[in-house]
User: Which sequence fits this backbone?
């Protein structure tokens, strides 16, 4: 009986601790992103749009969610809200090149290649935000992703030193089940984001790159 009571007490304590961490992480995200999410027409101009990856189809093309993000990035560029698009995605293997697929899509939509900079090691949101400032020297940006992901993305970028605002896609709501699953996953994903920030996890690093600075120094 005593063993059972001890086990129950430990279980209740662990559950309460987990719920506390979850709640605290979500509160941090909500506060850090408050009043920093906009529509394209209303977002304050920044030098750079940071476009986060969202996967490729088996044919190597952007998934619908990623295409929606890229469409928003083009709208920001066309509206002169940004001057450069930093597209950040996964290129862990030669056969999977998310940033190049993103660039090809944007160029086909009329964005000049000279205004696009690829980050080949944006493996997750934290990595993309951290590399934006540590590798590419970005200090201000408009983050582009799906609406439900935007609070965490903005909060994470701010936590690593990027003065970030965000624009979120809502067209993905047409994929009802996928959208709902994504919103649900976000509740837990903020815990990982909080942990990464608390330990200042290093992303994949390397030499600093001048692509963003060079593009910004060149007039349209």
Assistant:
């Amino acid at each position: 009986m005593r063993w059972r009571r001890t086990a129950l007490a430990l279980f209740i304590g662990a559950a309460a601790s987990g719920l506390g961490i979850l709640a605290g992480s979500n509160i941090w995200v909500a506060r850090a992103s408050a009043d920093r999410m906009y529509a394209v027409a209303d977002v304050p101009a920044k030098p750079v749009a940071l476009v986060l990856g969202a996967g490729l189809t088996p044919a190597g093309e952007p998934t619908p969610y990623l295409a929606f993000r890229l469409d928003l990035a083009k709208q920001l560029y066309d509206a002169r809200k940004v001057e450069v698009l930093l597209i950040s995605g996964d290129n862990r293997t030669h056969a999977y090149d998310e940033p190049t697929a993103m660039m090809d899509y944007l160029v086909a939509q009329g964005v000049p290649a000279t205004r696009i900079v690829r980050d080949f090691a944006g493996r997750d949101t934290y990595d993309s935000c951290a590399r934006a400032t540590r590798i590419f020297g970005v200090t201000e940006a408009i983050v582009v992703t799906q609406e439900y992901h935007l609070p965490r993305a903005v909060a994470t970028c701010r936590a690593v030193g990027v003065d970030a605002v965000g624009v979120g896609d809502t067209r993905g709501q047409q994929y009802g089940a996928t959208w709902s699953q994504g919103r649900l996953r976000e509740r837990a994903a903020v815990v990982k984001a909080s942990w990464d920030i608390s330990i200042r996890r290093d992303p994949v690093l390397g030499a600093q790159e001048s692509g963003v600075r060079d593009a910004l120094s060149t007039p349209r």
Notes: The longest helix spans residues 2-33. The longest strand covers residues 140-146.
